[in-house]
Amino acid sequence: GSGDGQGQILQRFPEKDWEDNPFPQGIELFCQPSGWQLFTERNPPTFFVAVLTDINSERHYCACFTFWEAVESAQPQSHPRNGEGEEEEEEPSSPVQPAQLFAPKSLVLVSRLDHAEVFRNSLGLIYTIYVDGLSVSLENVIGNLLTCTIPITGGAQ
């Protein structure tokens, strides 16, 4: 009813933790620092990178690309009433159509490398494939992105 909710991880790669690089706990809270809220307008996509430091003082660069998807309201709203508690005369028994609501959905990339532009481009590609409904499996896209060679800073191209 209030429009507030909790984030939920729908899919992750790899599906199981790597021994030397565990999955960051609470990443769903990190994606929406102001909380998971529904809005009546579709917001433009956003992108940010933050640095998380683990218990061993190792940095993890977390790139977050958030976009907004329409959701269907599960609660029908009743027709508004006037100040005297009586229903208005025009169509008193018809329910009011609920406003269209939009929920945030985030794509997150966690890396030990600091390459914000590569993160933005990679997440933008995944977003484009998802929005355009292309018949490419997300697993194949992720696999192809993970096999890309990224030159070290200051190294040969």
From TrEMBL:
Residues covered by region (Disordered): 75-97
GO biological process assignments: regulation of Rab protein signal transduction
Cited InterPro entries: DENN_Domain_GEFs, Tripartite_DENN, uDENN_dom
Pfam families: uDENN (PF03456)
GO molecular-function terms, A-Z: guanyl-nucleotide exchange factor activity
Any one cellular-component term (Gene Ontology): cytoplasmic vesicle
Residue stretches making up the UDENN domain: 1-157
Domain of life of the native organism: Eukaryota
Protein's name in the database: MTMR5 protein
